[in-house]
Amino acid sequence: MQRRFDDVAGRALLQLGVVLHRAVAGRVARERWQQRRNAVLRAAAGRGVPVQVLAARLGLSEGWVRQVLNGRKPAEPPVIEEAA
Questions:
Q1: CA–CA dist 82, 8 (Å, integer)
Q2: What is the pLDDT of residues 54-71, one digit of tens each?
């Protein structure tokens, strides 16, 4: 029974993480939301949701998700400047 609850709770936490991931805006606000999202991802992983599922649902690489789960700040993707 406990395993089933952990699975359901983990999936709910994952869904919350996806919503937070998609709802970020503004630099300072985005950082706050990303911190919350990362905390939710760690909680979901702690409940048994595999890294592959986390990465697939968020549309991120598994390496990036592993960095978040280990408490490191992943490198930001490079910014591409438009030609004038």
A1: 44
A2: 999 988 889 989 998 888
Dist CA 73 CA 49 (whole Å): 20
Would you call 74 helix, strand, or coil by DSSP?
coil
Segment 19-48 shows an average pLDDT of: 80
Please state, in angstroms and rounded to a whole number, the distance separating the CA atoms of residues 71 and 52: 18
49 CB-contact burial (10 Å; exposed 0-12 / middle 13-18 / buried 19+): buried
**What count of other Cβ atoms lies within 10 Å of the Cβ of residue 62?**
13
Q: What DSSP character marks residue 50?
A: -
CA 13 to chain centre: 10
User: In angstroms, rounded to a whole number, what is the distance separating the alpha carbons of residues 64 and 54?
Assistant: 10
| 6: Cβ contacts below 8 Å, ≥ 6 apart | 47, 48
